Amino acid sequence: MSDWQKIAEFARKKVAALSKEHATRLEFEIKEIDKQGANDYWINLLKSKQKFEANTNGLVLPFLLGITPVDPVDCEYVFKIDETGEEDDIMRLVLDNGKTISVPSRALIKTINGPIIAKDLKVEDELT
């Protein structure tokens, strides 16, 4: 079994304890990684033991592998990042359920009044 197959199987075992949406997204991500030939990227990332506070691409795989603490299914309201290439501040948002997530300050956040740039959020803004 290749390193990539071991990673995929490990993630499949971890996702079994989570929601159906987690499992569906994981299978889609695995297929896309295979299709794009990005297997070595994930092998090298895992071997490097690199960690990220944000999950800006909203992927389930890095969450399951412990690369990021951000569960993208719980945090789906972060749906687009402005990719200007400029340095970006990271903001910590505290959710009603007590979880804290980190997002780039230019992330667009879904609210009941439409998308708002994270740095412009106010306490009274209701997220969807």
Annotation keywords:
128 residues, alpha+beta, 2 domains, three-stranded antiparallel β-sheet, two-stranded antiparallel ribbon, 35% helix
Give an overview in words.
Helices cover 35% and strands 16% of the residues. The protein is of the alpha+beta class and 128 residues long. The chain has two domains: 3-51; 78-120, no CATH class. The longest helix is centred in the first third of the chain and has 17 residues, at 20-36. The chain starts with a helix and ends in an 11-residue tail after the last strand. Mean pLDDT is 79; it is low at 77-83.
Helix-strand layout with pairing:
Layout: H1 3-15, H2 20-36, H3 39-48, H4 60-64, E1 78-80, E2 90-94, E3 100-104, E4 108-111, E5 114-117
Antiparallel strand pairs: 1-4, 2-3, 4-5
Give a summary of the structure in a few sentences.
Helices cover 35% and strands 16% of the residues.
Mean pLDDT: 79
Biggest sheet strand order reads 1-4-5
Number of helices: 4
Largest sheet: 3 strands, antiparallel
Multimeric organization: single chain
**Helix percent band:** 25-40%
Based on CA atoms alone, the radius of gyration comes out at 16 Å
N-to-C span? 42 Å
Structural class: alpha+beta
Poorly predicted runs of 5 or more residues:
77-83
Shape type: elongated
> What is the β-strand count?
5
SSE ordering: HHHHEEEEE
Number of domains: 2
Proportion of residues in extended strands? 15-25%
